[in-house]
């Protein structure tokens, strides 16, 4: 379970269930996004490649008037 900085951003590399399981290795622009992805993947054991449910939705800052 390592998060390292690379030229293109931050890289997360880990295995969910140890040596015999699938290895996840992805690069994200921020370290916080790496940590969220890692926690989400460990909790779910499966990722959805099209959607990014581990990212929080942006806050709606529009005025009501």
Task: Describe the structure in your own words.
The longest helix has 14 residues. Strand 1 and strand 2 form a beta hairpin. The chain is built from one helix and three strands; from the N terminus they run E-E-E-H. It is α+β, with helices and mostly antiparallel strands.
Features of the shown structure:
elongated, 65 residues, single chain, alpha+beta
Q: Provide mean pLDDT, rounded.
A: 83
- Beta percentage is 25-35%
Low-confidence stretches: none
Most strands sheet:
3 strands, antiparallel
| Total helical elements | 1
Dominant shape: elongated
Question: CA-to-CA gap between the ends?
Answer: 48 Å
Structural class: alpha+beta
The helix/strand order is EEEH
Per DSSP E runs of 2 or more residues, the count of β-strands stands at 3
Q: If strands are numbered along the chain, what order do they take across the biggest sheet? A: 1-2-3
Task: Please tell me how large the radius of gyration is.
Answer: 15 Å
Helix content: 10-25%
Give a quick summary of the entry.
This protein has 65 residues and is an alpha+beta fold. The protein has one helix at 31-44; strands at residues 2-6, 9-15, 23-28. The radius of gyration is 15 Å and the shape is elongated.
């Amino acid at each position: 379970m390592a998060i390292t900085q690379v030229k293109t951003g931050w890289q997360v590399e880990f295995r969910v269930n140890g040596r015999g399981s699938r290895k996840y290795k992805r690069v994200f622009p921020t370290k916080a996004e790496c940590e969220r992805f890692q926690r989400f993947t460990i909790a779910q054991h499966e990722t959805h490649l099209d959607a990014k449910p581990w990212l929080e939705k942006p806050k709606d800052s529009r005025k009501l008037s």
